[in-house]
Fold:
Amino acid sequence: MADTTHTADERVSSRLIGVVATAALGGFLFGFDSSIINGTVEAIRDQFSLNAVVLGFVVSVALLGAGVGAWTAGICADRIGRVKTMLVAAFILFVSSVGAGLAFGVVDLIIWRFLGGVGIGFASVIAPGYIAEVSPAKHRGTLATMQQMALVTGIFMALLASAWFARISGGAAEVLWFGLPAWRWMLMSAAVPSLIYGILAIRLPESPRFLASRGRTDEARTVLREVVGMRQEVNIDAKITSMLGTVKLEKRQKFSDLLGGRFGLLPLVWIGILLSVFQQFVGINVIFYYSTTLWQAVGFQESDSFVISVITAVTNIVATIIAIMLIDRVGRRRLLLIGAAIMTVSLATMALAFAQADIIDGAPVLPGSWGPVALVAANLFVIGFGISWGPTVWVLLGEMFPNHIRAYALGVGGAAQWLANFVVSATFPSLADAGLELAYGLYGFFALLSFVFVYFLVPETNGKQLEAMGDDAPREPALPVPGSHIEDDVDPRMRTSPDPV
Structure:
């Protein structure tokens, strides 16, 4: 049963902010490591003489690793603790960054990229899960924004680092230091934030939820008192009792609870899966993984392409801030509809612009004003996604499932997202070779489908209890997730959904 008696006894201290900020570095690494490949694509293609299919696999193989990492992180966090799992993630990302930068050939580059993806998967799970467990319930939504902002900032810093390396070397393929080309230094640069993350994580307190589940209640009380900000012992005892109660509830969940409906799974589970798939099928990660290559392909110089990519990343940060301000006021469903409409128009404009391209020396070049038109449309697309489908899908996934299926349903939705991300990223080079107008026309079609899907099938969850989203939900009250995506990536076996308070 939910217990709200002790929420007034929780406060946000400077130490708590520092703890959450350190944990949010996992989101920064998630964004940085997944986007640093952007500036290296053309240089890697030339270095190893790759065709479009192999190049797409090199770029996107990290997403397969991320799926493995996200699942494995749950086991790791449950057995050795949240903080030690952060250290594992930092170590994996550090080693894989150095290995990828020093790769001898395409095979070991793929292996290192896959391993780096495992680290990304670890970071994507452990950061939001840990923040959920140390944040006071009434401040959880505010503290969650640190994770989201860290992620988009990581994307921005990755593109900024790539632009800097390319500028001082004269190009991603040009030799920089110690006889190594700039693209290798781009990949190795991810080792720096990984090392910082590992050093800072050593000083983090363990999650009170994990401590309580292991019978270390005295340590859990200390964390609740000194980090979470609780002062009254009776409330601390109630909190620990609540934690243990939800751990027992989650142990009773099983995958078969998701089954039932005309197409195998419950309708609500299918809605979650399709939300995840549509979020990726509009092609957003093409912008962040291939944007430098894209702008070079349509006539911009490499240095200009890097700058454009950085501007796009800044646009993404601004859009995320707007989303944080709007999501509780406008509502999830309306925001998704607005975003889908903006993306449909902007992607259709990009497809139209690329259809005007002249093929010169085997490469498309946009004539006249079509280049600026495509550039404006691309940034409008990022704005449309950033204020809506980017953060809102995760919020919906965190809110729409009732407690008795929530953990496994989130796991299925997360797996669908990684798989859809891989499909889009792996197929883009081949689609681009067939014509960029085809690629963006296809993404625009999915944006239009996403509008129809939301309009007819997606419920509004703003301000509702979790149980209201399913007729077969349990009757006991549960905690709504107010405008937060904190619990989005949490593996079902990690058991990090916050206890009802």
